[in-house]
Amino acid sequence: MQIRADQLHGHLERGLRPLYTVYGDEPLLVQEACDAVRAAARAAGHTERQVHTVAGAHFDWSGLLGAAQALSLFADRRLIEIHIPGGKPGKDGSEALQRYCEQLGEDVVTLVVLPRLDKATQSSGWFSALDAAGLVVRVEPVERKALPQWIAQRLAVQGQRVQAGEAGQRTLAFFADRVEGNLLAAHQEIQKLGLLYPPGELSFEQVEAAVLNVARYDVFKLSEAVLAGQTPRVLRMLEGLEAEGEAPVLVHWTLTEDIRTLKRLHDAVAAGKPLAMALREQRVWGVKEKLCERAVPRLAAWQVAGLLDAAQCCDGIVKGLKHPDWPLDPWAALRRLALMVVETLQFGPAEPAASRRRLALVA
Predict the structure, then answer these.
(1) Measured between alpha carbons, how far is 3 from 102 in angstroms, rounded to an integer?
(2) Which among 162, 212, 311, 330 is least surrounded, fewest beta carbons within 10 Å?
(3) Predicted confidence band of residue 358 (pLDDT cuts 50, 70, 90)
């Protein structure tokens, strides 16, 4: 049975299961979910804890199976943790985990910790065995649009809140901009506010003075922001990626892949193929699927061709070449390319002359 991380506490209150699997790539939320399982296990008398980390192909799975069956020397009940940082136990590990699930007892609670898993891994025999034998906790990242509410909920836990109405939303948006992509740091900044100020209402000035700019960005989130037409966020993310030393070539590749995807989708729809089928064939899933569903019908063929030409110009610049009418600096060129995509998606299939005049102003 799979649940979200925010549902775990309710399940633990109704009783302890013999097996818990926690998987995801958000360290703070994974840690909190694991801590909740450990606390519930200790409260139920599982005071001895063993940790097994699968570090490679030479892990002793027979030793793990034996440890689960052996009698405890110090306590009647134990908590056994199995950490698989790579997310793939291998052939021997797959068979061992399935056998392990078949011999679960009442005196042992097992916690399996995994990173984010793709669909193929979630359909594997060993993961299906974990799912059938216990509770699987899915830890999902907190997306940017949900971050203000997440911050407000964390503040409420320590008795603090922002102002009501638009002023409070502005404060939460500012906070979210400062910590986006870095949930561990966001948690620390929230705790800092609890130490600096008493319970009650926090003003924008108090939050602005206390919260550091600890945001961390990745090129894949930049891609989503560009397709969503979020101009201020796009510029902020490009600035952050440049400051963090990200390679301009990687940023350009990400933007260009999105342009190529839009071109392939547009061509497929123009040839009479349903957009939903084209999205499946191009393997566009999740957030990008919804963004492309909105973007593709708004594009004209000449606009997509223009974006491909711009991506080609930018490609030369990030590799050290020059191009007329384009900035010499790679990051300036990347900003121009990203803003051209945003501009095109915002205005849709306008008259070519009018739209080209607008695009000519983008630098």
Answers:
(1) 22
(2) 212
(3) very low
